[in-house]
Design a protein that fits this description.
single chain; 353 residues; mainly alpha; Glycosyltransferase; three-stranded antiparallel beta sheet; two-stranded antiparallel sheet; 14 helices; 9 strands; globular
Length: 353
C-alpha cells in the first residue's frame, strides 16, 4: 500500500479498483500483501463472539499463530458463566462456536490447561445446555426457536474439529431439512421452529456462503473411512455453489439476496464461495473446472479492497442490511487469499496445522 495514499484517506480502491488490475496482480506475493492488509484492518474493528471466532479461524488458515493465540486469550477473557466465550453483551447459543476450532488449536499449541478448560467448557455448553429442537438441532438465537443458514458454520465445524463427526453431520442434516429449497437449489435464511415455517425464505447470499464455508470445514476434518459422508457433503457444497452461480452478476459478484436484483450488490459471498472452491480443489473433492469460477470471484472481490485494507460492499456492521465493512468480510478475504495461495503453491491444504 502506498503510504501517501493511506495518509490522504483516499476512498479509491487499492490498485485502481479495476478487475483487470485485480487479475493481473496475481501470485502468492499479492495474496500475502492482501492478507496483511485485511488482517490489520480486521484487528482494528470491534468484534462480537462470531466475529472474533471467524477472524481467529481465518488467521489459523493464514498461519498467523501469534494472533490466533492472542484472539483466543481475548475470547476467554470475555467468558460467560454458562461456558460460552468471546461473549459481548449477550451473544447467541452457538455463535461462539465459530471460533472453536481455532481456539482449541491455540490451546493445544500453547499446552495451556486453562485455555483447554475454557474451550472444553464451550463445547460442553453447546453439547448439553444450548437450546435445541425436539430432534436435537441447535437454535441460533435465545429470542426464539430459530435456525439460520449461518448455523452451518457455527457448531458443525467445531464438533468435527473435536472428533464429534456424527453430531456435526446430524446438525447439518437438520439445518438442511428445514432450510434447503429444492426448486431454488439454495438455502433460505431463517426457519421458525415454533411456527414450523420459514421466517425468512429469502436466498440470502451470505447465508449460503456461511453454509458452503461450514461444510468445507467439516469435510476437511473428516477422518479416513468417512468417504460416503465426505462425498455427500461435497455434493451439497457443489449444489450451493451452482445455485449461487445461476444468479452471478457480470462483474463476478452477487446481489445481497441472490435472486433479487433490487437488493444491493454484495462482496462477501464471492469471497466465501472462492474459499470453499479453492479448499475443495486442494482436498480433491471439487473438480478443478471450478478454479476459473473462483479466480473470477476473487478478482471481483479484490477490486473492492480500499487503501486501508477494508473490503467494501459486504453486508456491513452493525445490522448487516446495507453495504459496508464487517469483520467477517475481512476474515473471508483472508480465508480466500490463504487457500488460493496454498493451491497456487501446491502446499498443504489450509487448516492442516
Amino acid at each position: 500500500m502506498r503510504r501517501g495514499q493511506f495518509v490522504s484517506g483516499s476512498p479509491s480502491f487499492d490498485g485502481g479498483g479495476s478487475l483487470a488490475e485485480a487479475v493481473d496482480a496475481g501470485g502468492p506475493d499479492e495474496a500475502t500483501r492482501r492478507i496483511e492488509m485485511a488482517t490489520a484492518a480486521a484487528m482494528a474493528m470491534q468484534r462480537r463472539d462470531w466475529e472474533q471466532g471467524i477472524l481467529a479461524q481465518a488467521l489459523l488458515e493464514s498461519g498467523d499463530w501469534e494472533r490466533v493465540i492472542l484472539l483466543t486469550k481475548g475470547a476467554i477473557a470475555q467468558s460467560a458463566p454458562d461456558g460460552r466465550i468471546a461473549v459481548v453483551v449477550s451473544g447467541g447459543p452457538t455463535d461462539a462456536a465459530m471460533g472453536g476450532e481455532a481456539y482449541w488449536r491455540a490451546a493445544e499449541r500453547m499446552g495451556d490447561p486453562g485455555m483447554k478448560e475454557a474451550v472444553l467448557g464451550l463445547l460442553e455448553y453447546i453439547l448439553h445446555r444450548a437450546p435445541r429442537s425436539s430432534d436435537g438441532i441447535l437454535y441460533h438465537t435465545f429470542d426464539g426457536p430459530e435456525m439460520w443458514s449461518d448455523g452451518f458454520n457455527c457448531a458443525p465445524p467445531f464438533f468435527a474439529a473435536m472428533g464429534l463427526y456424527d453430531e456435526a453431520l446430524a446438525q447439518i442434516d437438520g439445518y438442511r431439512r428445514r432450510l434447503w429449497n429444492p426448486d431454488g437449489r439454495l438455502l433460505s435464511h431463517i426457519w421458525d421452529d415454533g411456527a414450523r415455517r420459514l421466517k425468512r425464505a429469502d436466498f440470502w447470499g451470505v447465508g449460503n456462503g456461511w453454509a458452503a464455508a461450514g461444510l468445507t470445514r467439516v469435510i476437511r476434518s473428516l477422518p479416513p473411512g468417512r468417504d460416503e459422508d465426505r462425498a455427500r457433503l461435497a455434493a451439497f457444497v457443489a449444489e450451493i455453489v451452482d445455485g449461487c452461480l445461476a444468479w452471478q452478476r457480470p462483474d463476478g459478484l452477487f446481489h445481497e439476496v441472490v435472486d433479487q436484483p433490487e437488493t444491493f450488490v454484495e462482496t462477501n459471498l464471492a469471497q466465501m464461495l472462492a474459499f470453499a472452491i479453492y479448499e475443495g480443489i486442494s482436498g480433491g473433492w471439487l473438480p478443478a473446472r471450478y478454479r476459473g469460477v473462483a479466480d473470477r470471484m476473487r478478482a471481483a472481490a479484490r477490486a473492492r479492497m480500499d487503501v486501508f485494507g477494508y473490503v467494501q460492499g459486504v453486508c456491513g456492521v452493525p445490522n448487516f442490511n446495507r453495504p459496508g465493512i464487517a469483520t467477517e468480510g475481512q476474515a473471508f478475504c483472508i480465508l480466500m487469499e490463504s487457500t488460493g495461495r496454498k493451491l497456487a503453491l501446491g502446499t498443504v491444504v489450509a487448516g492442516s496445522v
